[in-house]
Amino acid sequence: MRVLIVEDHPEMGRWLTRELDKVKWECDLAETAAAALSLARQGAYDVVLIDVMLPDRNGIELCQELMTLGNTARIMVTARDAVSDRIEALDKGADDYIIKPFVIGELIARIRAVSRRTTGDRGPVLEFCDLRLWVEERSVEQRGLPIELSRREFDLLRAFMNHTKKVLARDQLLELAWGYMFYAESNVVDVTVKRLRERLNPDGQVVIETVRGIGYVLRPAHE
After folding, report:
1. How many CB atoms lie within 10 A of CB 190?
2. At CA 168, angle to CA 165 and CA 174, rounded to 5?
3. 34: helix, coil or strand?
């Protein structure tokens, strides 16, 4: 992640640079709009953090100009908390607006969120053979085609994909996919596995195999 910080207050700029460096992001600091534009023209940034009140130019005007330089996320970071200021910034190209003072963890989360939106990143993904499962948006594709799953079917498949080629007992699957254990006799795992098998493409590259007396395993179909 490459981040450009546009902040004219030296102490604030150093603090932001230090904190973002802790999450291994590469940061450049500009104290004026002119310096920010010069850096942005020299190289691409994933996110630009922009103070509204800059010495040489309004930060919202800078935000608008940065829109012409590529697909870079723009977050206004400012002490101006009026609703009208937020509306103006968002209407004129800001992807987010955070008010000082703020908790650094929230800023980092917002940077990640706007970066995903602007780059089309769908978040963490699990992959196995021809299956792809996006954890955050709770969607699944097989052979590039979407598969419609219920909540429990999705959670069960996620458990399998986190433990591919490993035999999972029924009580393990209950904990992983349901978050609890049944102490009474229950066939909920077997029923859900049956439904999940029906959802998967019969010509696909994976199979959920029954291991008699133990449980199930997700493995390549032709292994």
Report:
1. 14
2. 140
3. helix
The model's pLDDT over 92-110, given as tens digits with 9 standing for 90+, comes to 999 999 999 999 999 998 8
Q: Is 43 exposed, middle or buried (0-12, 13-18, 19+ CB in 10 A)?
A: exposed
For the segment 177-190, what is each residue's pLDDT rounded down to a tens digit?
988 765 545 789 99
Q: Measure the CA–CA gap between 207 and 210, rounded to whole angstroms.
A: 10
CATH number of 2-119: 3.40.50.2300
How many beta carbons lie within 10 A of that of residue 221, not counting itself? 14
Q: Distance between alpha carbon 60 and the CA centroid of its chain, in Å?
A: 26
Domain residue ranges in the chain:
2-119, 125-220
Q: Does residue 48 sit in helix, strand or coil?
A: strand
For 125-220, the fitting CATH number among 3.30.70.260, 3.90.950.10, 1.10.10.10, 1.10.390.10 is: 1.10.10.10
Tell me how far apart the alpha carbons of residues 20 and 16 are, in angstroms, rounded to a whole number.
6
Largest CA distance in the chain: 73
| Distance, CA of 127 to chain centre | 16
Long-range contacts of 59-65 (CB under 8 A, 24+ apart): 59/6, 59/33, 60/88, 60/89, 60/92, 60/94, 61/33, 62/6, 62/33, 62/36, 62/37, 63/89, 63/92, 63/93, 63/94, 64/92, 64/93, 65/37
User: Taking the complete model, does pTM exceed 0.70, yes or no?
Assistant: no
| DSSP run (H or E) holding 211 | strand 206-211
Q: Which two tokens stand for residue 154?
A: 């999705």
